[in-house]
Records
---
Amino acid sequence: MFNFFKKSQSQQSGVPKKRESLESLWRLTKILMENLEFEDVVYKTVNSLLNELGYLKSGYRIVVLSLVDEEAGGLRRIALSETEEARRATSVSTIPFERIVIPFSATQNLGIKVLMSGKPEVTTHWPDLLSPPLTAEAALTNQRSAGITTSMVYPVFARGKAIGTLIFSMVKKYQDVTEEEKDLLWGFTELIGLAVENSMLFTKLKNTSQQLTQANNKLQQLDQLKDDFVSVASHELRTPMTAIKSYAWMALNRADVDLSEKLKKYLVRVLMSTDRLINLVNDMLNISRIESGRIELLPEAVDLISLSKDIIDEVYYSKSIEKPIKFHLLEQSLPKVFADPNKLRQVFLNIVGNALKFSPPGGSIIIGFFTDGQSVETYIKDEGPGISKDDISRLFKKFGRLDNSYTATASSGGTGLGLFISKSLIDLMHGKIWAESEGVGKGATFKFSLPIATNELVEHADQYQIKPAGDIRELEPAAL
């Protein structure tokens, strides 16, 4: 695991001594790996050798960890052992410990020399360790205050690169340091390199995770503000637009006033424009409620044939005068589907409304079904302008209209929001929705499938309900 025996000059260490050193390093490994927080690791780094392995009894008094600081351009003091000698040295220092940075250019400093050579150094003269930034006189004052005789500087490696140094200061002479102690110090520095690197990576990852969490929370807040703004703005727009529509309708239909054809044309345009804007407001409100989770979903067994007839009657009687369209309902024996009837009605109205808008006068709209025993597929086929293959993927996206020109928008009165709302609702009901077309000019077929209302689903319908806390709103009616 460690190569410290290779770095020892001693060839006389016996097996018992090696075993004892390995056991000591194993204990240090367990201590340092208990926590990956950087601050905890560096604190344990400078204290574990003295306290856990009893090196205080062997004359060691101060351990200092320094790491490369590229931004500061030097070797920065990171951690200092908590001993009386260390406190005495820092109490008289002219520069606080945490502000001591040895510049890379100070090649005469033993810390920089060890960092560059990768080999340990020994000194009895603290100016070799602290100058610069401290003056020689200040460094000697620190040394005398601590009562230190000898200091050994070892490189700290990570992935084969020197990332810092460890200084071991003691009250005994270098000649009294045993080969076993040197062996253990080498192993200790290699262990520290691994522990410090892991803790730095862990702390960096943790900080990045916290930053991402904060950014995500901020985005959620902004998204909520957006939803709130859309909701408030939509409500504020709908009230005056409804009033404008009412006044325009009354002006157009007054029996006691003869209006010129030009004025009638203008009033019809006002009615059409207000209708489109009100529909847009309704769609924006619906999207806001769906995306913010403020709608209720109460699934039950729904008869698709009966619902289709209701939709056809509603659309036919409300739009047959404006645009004659033939509806063909292909009735067949079908199982009921498991869905929220009100939300499914919204989907039907959106798709049938689109078919009505894009079908030519006198055209046909076909509503049919298919079942595979697991789900029921509903399809609505029109004779409209069709959809190119490149455009189909954009259909169910927000504002996913195929032609964004003013002319197309004005003629059809749509924004693409209806299909986005339909997909959102079908997804909530655990179904699928898609569109097919043979190409431009060949009409389009919109399909959606929903699960069959089995006895098990109906009996446990409450498990599939969505009942959000707080403000619950029904969806605004779909535009036709």
---
Amino acid sequence: MTISRSQANRAGKILKTGKISDEYYDAISILDAWRKQHENPAKIFFKKLLEITNKYPNSIATYRLKRKESILNKLNRNNNHFKLGEIDDIVGCRVIVDSVDEVYKIYNEIIGLKQSGYIGIKTIKDYIKEPESSGYRSLHVIINQLCSYGEESRTYRIELQIRTRLQHYWSTAVEAMGEIDGVEYKNPTLSACDNTRRIKSCLKFFKLISELVIAREYKNSTSNKTIESINAELEKPDFREIIEDLTLVQESISIKIHGSFDISEKRLYLLEFSRETQELSVYSYTIDLTDEAIEDYNNSENNIRYKKKYGVNNDASQKKDKNQKDSSITNSITVNTKVRDINRVLVYAKNNEQLYDAYPNYSYAIGKFIDFVETR
């Protein structure tokens, strides 16, 4: 028997209470089942997405399931009305491309899928044309993907983000700063709070950098005078300190590759990064093994369980295949993070640089972000 959206919503209400009980454990089981039901529709859509992105030589496509802890955190966020059955991003797919023009070309192909009856579209949020107050920019499309389990058919929601590389580097830097400071800078309610000088400086800094990204992506859209004014403001001590902190994180992470995963053909890569041990495992799949890659990703994600706050064991089992390659990371600084777990992403990459772009750690993307800031 499958879990209905209304059943998921009822379980979500129980999970919001945080009271450990038999009813709470049952609700956790429903969450697990509801999350797992998204796997097949996600596989259907991701394979169709790969057909589209394969037409764009420098594009990157990624796939991930929202971790259980992230779902619980979202349900328990202050002043929110999230319902478990209404969370749109339990499955997330992301496409990273070279330009804004390519963002909309891929978007138009997604619209073509809708017109052909392959998918439905619930909502479209264009944060490129209308950025969030934080400066965040990306094109979000909530996909409705029909999927059948036995005799039951229903639609499942998948969040698709399409963004440029510069937008991706900006977003990654915001996440990294959030872990450095222990602040959820992506939280849209943060700017309305009575915050410390550091938080206000970070919010302002990333807003300014976002404006420079816009100027780069839309040449001649911003006056030279405005750009000069932004550049002058970025030289203030508070902002230079932010750049120095990001540089420290980036420079303190050294990647040691055991074996090789040089790309000689288009492949799917399952990347598993442990924030606690700073170890990275890389598993590669030829494109004809897409189903197997997605299944392995889903299985590895389902092996994560949480203890204490959520009442079950916390362990992560990782399978090892003799044909796969490994790499590991050593990190000489400690990043302030509340989540010490395995970060996984499934990546479709055509060369090493693309693989690093999608790498589930901050070193490479922060380096690119700093390069952009310092050479502005």
---
Amino acid sequence: MSINQNQKMSVVNIADLTVMRIQKLNNIVEALKDYLTLPDLSKREKIDLYNQRESLVDVITFLKESRYA
């Protein structure tokens, strides 16, 4: 395999890994959304979970945009 072919394979593998990471992060965002509905969470815990969820949404958006850039 030539160097150019290796580079192409690396790019494909990185793109596949990025897609998998985005999917995993989306799953975490959904789980956090479910946790936010738990009745026994304190207001502070809900705020922390919400902030974590929003941060992950920002990371996902960045990954999606950089993937297509």
